[in-house]
Design a protein that fits this description.
Layout lengths: L1 H16 L1 H30 L10 E7 L10 H10 L4 E14 L4 E9 L3 H5 L5 E2 L14 E4 L1 H8 L9 E3 L4 E7 L12 E4 L18 E7 L5 H18 L1 H4 L3 E6 H5 L5 H32 L1 H9 L4 H39 L21 H26 L18 H37 L10 E7 L9 H16 L4 E7 L10 E6 L10 E8 L3 H5 L3 E4 L14 E5 H7 L9 E5 L11 E10 L14 E5 L8 E7 L7 H11 L4 E7 H7 L2 H35 L1 H9 L4 H30 L15 H26 L4 H7 L1
Parallel strand pairs: 3-8, 5-7, 14-19, 16-18
Antiparallel strand pairs: 1-9, 1-10, 2-3, 2-9, 4-7, 5-8, 6-7, 11-20, 11-21, 12-20, 13-14, 13-17, 15-18, 16-19, 17-18
Helix pairs in contact: 1-11, 2-9, 2-11, 2-12, 3-6, 9-12, 9-13, 9-19, 11-12, 13-19, 13-21, 13-22, 14-17, 19-21, 19-22, 20-23, 21-22
Length: about 800
């Protein structure tokens, strides 16, 4: 212990004697350690940490699939059949999502109500964070229903107040007694905010219709000893029986299961996270190489000291321990500063990921967001990374600095070092290593830039400029039935909004482009029903007369809706898009053909009623799910024909649409003070939000590539500056015998750029491997795009030349007389 304390004190004195070296080394390590700690904390919470349920590897999501449809959520009636006939498979639970509203001073706030079947929490394996879960008698009884809150909803609506247990929550429809709170990250599905038993409240349409497959999920906990393959075989057999018993809805479908973990991580977040983690590791490696180079340079100035210690009896192990202590002290300081940087970075990441996407009301980009926090694990991660960084930066310099031949330096006054050839090789290797890692990151950044540029050039099928979007939910129960009530409300909302100064037209649509939502219906063409199990499905959009104008969607054939088509009987005309025309009438004119679809608003009593109408127009394809996704076949129905429980207003304005946010909000609440307005955003923002994952990935990777480029430039400058100092005598002699300024510049810059060239070649090869991870993030861009590789080298060369030019210019100012005098 005394020896360790002595090493620490000696290391502290040595570092304090070189404050510039210490500051640069600590800041360099802090940058690498902070970035790694922050990103690894996110990756660990999202990808590696087990789900917060008992035995999570036994949890699966039940779904149905057919040859045409790879994934469909079972209806409630189908779930009951699977549970009854598959009792030997394990526990099953069902959850149905509904919109709820909380009264506010201005309008109402929307939340998602999750109505769960009996045994749902038992199948999920959840335990309460506070309070309790549902009792068996509560899952069957009427009366004031109990409620369990998700952790995020508890924090958002009740400020994390522990006294919330027993409190009554009053909504527009019912009152609930809060009995418990789930732990962070335990909400399933991720949209669930307030859980209540399925038996409580009004009987939803979804509970009585076998063909309702939306806003729901089925969880399965496999019994111990049952393999996934056996469970799938059992579910397939049950699905075959259901297809025979209920051919109208189940023909062609069989049951299957997928890991709950895969369901939670759906959305393509794994690739960007692993990509960013790899990038931060590369940044840390560059930082370690930089600090190791600083150590090696510093060893040359300490040659005499180390030689004397060797002569006085210090063995190699003793010197290695002392030098490693210094590097570990530096790494510890860098780790502490890096921890502060990691906390700050984590805050930025979680704020960006947790921000609601304005158009869709989605709860953020990252799953398991609540589990990403600064805790003991973050300190452990920082400590481990700091230790590894200390060993990586100190081991090579310590081993080299403790060499037995160092005692020979005493005779030369401490001026003896490595052979010129060995020194040049070492310097070239350090430069090449940093440059190679930097080029890898620059290539990845260039590919993402080219991909995003091409994506932004895609025509979305509408004009977003000057359009304000508003998502409205009627909160009063009176709008559930009859259909005319909610249609009348939407008409009044449109009329009131049209009177706001600066508004040109007001459209209505159930699913806003780029907002991520979709509803479908099977379709029958010209009254010819398809064979059961082989029905075609199209997207259903309900809209008003002004929607086409407000979004400037091109009409290519026929006409758009007229007021005569807005009859509740649905005997007027409907409009289809190009994709549907090509799918069902390739090379033909679809105008005049009759189409039958089925009402698709799942929460309404008229769900599933047929709508038979004539095709009166064809409009251009609109990218519904993202600029990188092809348009689906879609049919447009008048909103009076197929009333929807919520709608988007698309308001075409003069000038900046954001300035009308408050006037439009006031106009809407003037029609119905209890109206839920869940988002108000310009359509350009909605379009931008659809690319937010790509933008954040590009921004972070670009930031890491920029840091790597800066560190590589500093490393190149440091290596060449040290080389110029070591070769000052040689340079002076060269100048004395006639070498000109150009010769000296070429010599120094040439040495540096040879390492840069070698590193660039290695980096290009490494980039070819690294960019395999980018394939899923690239749009119409090959991971081997030569322009991206050239761009990466093009970004590197000017910076490298600038970094090499500074010490080269200093070398030209070496006085030859000083060098000759020293001889």
């Amino acid at each position: 212990m005394d020896t360790l304390w002595h090493d620490l004190r000696y290391a502290a004195r040595q570092l304090l004697r070189s404050p510039g070296f210490t500051a640069v080394a600590v800041l360099t390590l802090a940058l690498g350690i902070g970035a790694n700690t922050a990103i690894f904390s996110v990756v660990n919470a999202v990808l590696f940490r087990p789900l917060p349920y008992a035995e999570p590897d036994r949890l699966f999501v039940l779904f149905e699939q057919s040859r045409q449809i790879p994934f469909r959520t079972p209806s409630y009636l189908t779930f009951r059949d699977y549970r009854e006939q598959g009792s030997d498979i394990g526990q099953m639970g069902y959850v149905l999502g509904e919109s709820g509203s909380l009264p506010r001073d201005r309008g109402a706030a929307r939340f998602t109500l999750a109505r769960v079947s009996e045994g749902f929490f038992g199948a999920l394996g959840a335990t309460p964070y506070a309070g309790r879960l549902f009792l068996p008698e509560e899952e069957q009884a009427d009366g004031t229903p109990p409620a369990v809150l998700s952790y995020a909803f508890w924090r958002q609506e009740f400020g994390g107040d522990p006294a919330v247990l027993g409190r009554t929550v009053r909504t527009a429809n019912l009152s609930y007694t809060i009995v418990g709170v789930l732990p962070p990250g335990a909400a399933f599905p991720s949209w669930a905010e307030l859980y209540t038993p399925l038996a409580s409240g009004p009987r939803a349409v979804a509970l009585t219709h076998r063909d309702v497959h939306v806003d729901a999920a089925t969880i399965v906990r496999l019994r111990t000893g049952l393999t996934v393959e056996a469970a799938r075989a059992r579910l397939g057999a049950i699905g075959s029986r259901l297809a025979a018993a209920y051919p109208a809805d189940n023909a062609g479908f069989v049951g299957n299961i997928s890991s709950l973990r895969d369901s939670v991580l759906s959305g393509g977040i794994s690739t960007p996270l692993l990509l960013l983690l790899s990038a931060t590791v590369l940044v840390l490696l560059i930082a370690c190489v930089n600090v190791a180079n600083l150590f090696l340079a510093r060893l040359d100035s300490r040659s005499r000291e180390l030689a004397l210690r060797t002569a006085l009896g210090a063995g190699r192990g003793r010197l290695v321990r002392q030098l490693l202590t210094e590097s570990l002290v530096l790494a510890s300081l860098g780790g502490m500063l890096g921890l502060l940087m990691a906390q700050w970075t984590l805050g930025l990441l979680t704020d960006a990921a947790g921000a609601n996407l304005l158009a869709s009301g989605a709860s953020g980009l990252l799953p398991r967001l609540e589990e990403i926090r600064v805790d003991v694990g973050l300190f452990v991660i920082t400590a481990v990374v700091s230790l590894l960084a200390g060993l990586a930066t100190g081991l090579l310099p310590a081993w080299r600095g403790s060499g037995r031949d160092i005692a020979l330096l005493i005779k030369s006054g401490g001026q003896r070092g490595s052979s010129p050839r060995r020194a040049r090789l070492r310097r070239g290797g350090l430069i090449a290593g940093q440059v190679a890692l930097t080029v890898v990151l620059l290539i990845g950044t260039a590919l993402l830039i080219r991909s995003l540029t091409r994506l932004l050039q895609v025509d979305p099928g509408f004009r977003p400029d000057g359009v304000l979007t508003v998502h409205v939910f009627p909160s009063s129960p009176r709008y559930s039935n009859p259909a005319s009530d909610v249609s009348s409300l939407y008409t009044r909302l449109v009329d009131a909004t049209s009177l706001v100064p600066g508004v040109l037209s007001v459209g209505l649509v159930n699913h806003l482009p780029m907002a991520g939502a979709w509803s479908g219906s099977r379709v029958e063409i010209d009254g010819k029903p398809a064979e059961p199990g082989h029905e075609e499905t199209v997207g259903v959009r309900v809209a008003n007369v002004e929607y086409l104008r407000s979004m400037e969607i091109p009409l290519s054939r026929g006409r758009w809706f007229s007021l005569d088509d807005m009859t509740p009987t649905g005997r007027g005309g409907i409009v289809i898009n190009h994709a549907m025309a090509e799918q069902f009438w390739p090379g033909q004119n679809p105008i005049g053909h009759r189409v039958q679809v089925f009402k698709s608003a799942a929460g309404r009593a008229e769900f599933g009623e047929p709508v038979s109408a004539e095709v009166v127009g064809v409009v251009g394809d609109v990218r519904q799910f993202g600029l990188d996704q092809q348009s689906d076949a879609a049919v447009y129905l008048p909103y009076t024909v197929n009333p929807w429980g919520h709608m988007f207003l698309t308001i075409q304005t003069t000038g900046d649409p954001a300035r009308l946010t408050e006037p439009v909000r006031r106009a809407l609440l003037g029609v119905d003070p209890d109206l839920m307005i869940t988002s108000v955003a310009p359509m350009s923002v909605v379009l931008s939000d659809s690319l937010v994952l790509r933008r954040i990935t590009l921004s972070l990777l670009g930031a890491f590539a920029g840091c790597a480029l800066l560190l590589a430039a500093i490393g190149l400058y440091g290596v060449l500056s040290h080389a110029v100092g070591q070769r000052a005598r040689e340079i002076g002699i060269r100048r004395a015998v006639g070498a000109g300024t150009g010769n000296i510049l070429r010599m120094v810059i040439g040495e540096g750029m040879s390492g840069v060239a070698s590193g660039a070649v290695i980096g290009i090869a490494g980039g070819w491997l690294f960019t395999r991870m980018l394939t899923g993030l690239l749009y119409q861009t090959s991971s081997t795009d030569p322009m991206a590789y050239l761009s990466a080298v093009g970004m590197l060369l000017p910076v490298a030349l600038f970094a090499a030019g500074i010490p080269a210019r200093r070398a030209t100012r070496v006085d030859p007389m000083v060098a000759l005098r020293s001889e």
